[in-house]
């Protein structure tokens, strides 16, 4: 998978737990950053969320595979794709890769609902967001 470069970092010792590898919380924190970056690229910017349409994707279902450990000092990056576009939902696939060999160490599928941040209910995805999301639709 080669998708939108949504997150890039080097694993910090504080990202790791006493098992000596990056902790699960950091994986999901990276996914959170990735969704913010991708939705901003689609037009759901911080400004639009604060004082514009007040819409943001929110995760309602997730399925994940942890495929290899990563440790402090390793460069990692996240590539994200859109796998499905519904009326009020969009499904994202995030692949966290070890940068030196591009190996996928973690893969997750997030089904997200477009949340109206005022009504706190699902909202129909505006056409401009659907159109820009198509740029990151998975090929297969
Ligand atoms: C989000 C809700 C308010 C939706 O409830 P509502 O009743 O308004 O919506 P519908 O039930 O009509 O569903 C619309 C749409 O979504 C699909 N769907 C809903 N729930 C599920 C589910 N569990 N599994 C699969 N699909 C579901 C439904 O089929 C419809 O799809 P269509 O394609 O047909 O339109 C309500 O569900 C709710 O409040 N849920 C809780 C959400 C939540 O609190 N999540 C917590 C984690 S999210 C999070 O922490 C987070 C952190 C970040 O840092 C982010 C950064 C950037 C983006 C997102 C972030 C983020 O989500």
Automatic annotation (TrEMBL):
Its EC number is 3.1.2.28. The keyword Hydrolase applies. Pfam families: 4HBT_2. The keyword Transcription does not apply. GO terms for molecular function: 1,4-dihydroxy-2-naphthoyl-CoA thioesterase activity; fatty acyl-CoA hydrolase activity. Keywords: Hydrolase. This is 1,4-dihydroxy-2-naphthoyl-CoA hydrolase.
